[in-house]
Write a structure and sequence with these properties.
60% helix, three-stranded antiparallel β-sheet, six-stranded mixed β-sheet
């Protein structure tokens, strides 16, 4: 399933983050500093960097393989979780994996957030081991996988530690000796991962200063043209009202409410009836679902102090919702044998919900084809469009033009010149410009970036943009810039002093 968009977009990546991964492959740096061992989710880099460096595999080609492999790893994790923790049969567990692989939310996560995908895959294999701590093998495997989960991604680490904490407290507050003994074993087993995670939290709140200048990519300077996202020293809590980071744009509470409800409806409304009908109690799933719901909807309850990136938490709801939906379908279909309702009515209900879910996933899978030939897709649906990776920073039909523009800048920019680039083009510049070339990057305010370039007294100031209005990022050519070179829809402009 995940190979489909990769093939349609070949030889280019399918999402924005893939450009960042390709850039970090060029640096070859897994840890920038000793502190990033704790603060950076580096495990994916530790896997793919050696392959890239040793065999010289093209970075985009390697990422095209890594995405589907990690997605398959997650599908296997869904099967294993259902089989090992929920004690489901083989057929039912396979159905859970199959249904997961067809959903819009799971495809969205795997299309761009490779580190998140790796972390969640490890989490799915780690959580069932909580019930196997009595054996030495189960205990040792849990310790190892919990550490790898922490190194893989923060959200998977938070999920694992919160679930473990709740189970420990539940066991210690329980008077049964068996439960208390289990809680004590879990404390010892989760301790190494907890120490690494808490060390990372401390170093993020009180970072160690160090100089880091990669040997590849341009001399990149950002202008501060967005609303600060963080809320004090607690980096994982933010104030959403009035936020404007380019991705999260909420001028008021009503717009935030509309965004949250619209995304949830698009992702889960087609089969939410199955989730509702199939909800069952399991202490691990209970905590996992509760945490994801807090992350997804907490911004509506306390918008001034809520978990960062509510939409990322909402996408991850696909994991527990998959199990509830499969259970719900089983419950509805079981009524046929009980004679409680007609066969046709139940089959129609289930088939409509599953078909709608598959249709949305299929539309997302063929995004490269739809963007080029139809100009429409999931990425076009307002107000949820900005939460979906629709292309690698620019439309697929503009990638060649963007690369040509970056190569032109590389050949024509000198130390006394700079390029003013919107975030999308600045991302591509990191792959083609060198560290002696200057880039001033912005997200919203191009005039602020141009003024900074003028203050630095660069002899030549270049600007890259579309030469026709396509509606992306609200970009426009600032005043006093004339076109000097064009590559299909992408043009390079140069500042002319009056």
């Amino acid at each position: 399933m995940r190979l489909i968009p990769e093939i349609l977009a070949y030889p280019y990546p399918i999402s924005w983050d893939m450009i960042h991964y390709a850039y970090f492959m060029r640096t070859g740096i897994v840890w920038e500093h000793w502190s990033t061992f704790f603060t950076s989710p580096w495990l994916l880099y530790a896997f793919i960097f050696p392959i890239h460096n040793q065999f010289g595999v093209d970075s985009f080609l390697l990422l095209k393989v890594a995405g589907p492999v990690l997605f398959g790893f997650n599908v296997c994790g869904i099967y294993w979780f259902a089989k090992s923790l929920l004690n489901w049969g083989t057929k039912k567990s396979l159905l859970a994996g199959g249904f997961f692989s067809l959903q819009l939310a799971s495809l969205r996560i795997s299309s761009e957030f490779l580190k998140n995908t790796l972390g969640l895959g490890l989490l799915l294999f780690t959580l069932p081991l909580i019930k196997q701590l009595d054996s030495k093998r189960g205990f040792a495997t849990f310790v190892l996988l919990s550490l790898l989960t922490v190194f893989a991604h923060e959200y998977a680490a938070v999920t694992l530690l919160v679930i473990s904490l709740v189970l420990v407290l539940s066991g210690l507050l329980n008077r049964e000796e068996k439960r208390i003994r289990f809680a004590k074993k879990l404390i010892v087993a989760i301790l190494p991962a907890s120490i690494v995670f808490l060390t990372g939290v401390y170093l993020r709140m009180f970072p160690v200063s160090y100089a880091y200048q990669p040997m590849v990519g341009p001399n990149l300077v950002w202008v501060n043209d967005t609303t600060p996202q963080n809320y004090g020293t607690l980096f994982f809590f933010v104030n959403y009202v009035g936020m404007n980071t380019g991705l999260d744009i909420y001028p008021n509470y009503l717009f935030l409410l509309l965004s949250v409800l619209a995304l949830f409806s698009l992702l889960y409304l087609p089969y939410f009836y199955l989730v509702w009908k199939g909800f069952f109690r399991n202490e691990i799933l209970d905590v996992w679902t509760g945490l994801l719901l807090i992350g997804s909807f907490g911004c509506l309850v306390t918008p001034f102090f809520a978990l960062d990136l509510w939409h990322r938490w909402m996408f991850m709801l696909v994991y527990p919702f998959t199990f509830y939906a499969v259970k719900g379908a089983e419950i509805l279909l079981s009524r046929i044998s009980q004679g409680r309702t007609s066969l046709r009515k139940i089959r129609n209900k289930v088939s409509v919900m599953v078909s709608a879910t598959i249709l949305l996933g299929a539309i997302y899978l063929v995004t490269p084809f739809l963007m080029i030939h139809a100009g429409f897709g999931i990425y076009s649906l307002y107000p949820t469009s900005r939460y979906f990776s629709s292309a690698p920073a620019v439309p697929y039909q503009d990638i060649n033009g963007t690369i040509s523009a970056m190569q032109w800048l590389k050949d024509n920019m000198h130390n006394d010149s700079c390029a003013v680039l919107q975030n999308a083009f600045a991302t591509w510049s990191k792959l083609y410009l060198n560290n002696s070339q200057n880039v001033i990057a912005y997200i919203n305010d191009v005039d602020l970036a141009v003024n900074l370039a003028l203050q630095n007294k660069y002899q030549k100031i270049y600007f890259v943009c579309w030469n026709k209005e396509i509606g992306w990022y609200g970009t426009y050519v600032p005043t006093n810039f004339n076109e000097v070179q064009s590559f299909d829809r992408i043009s390079i402009f140069e500042y002319v002093r009056r």
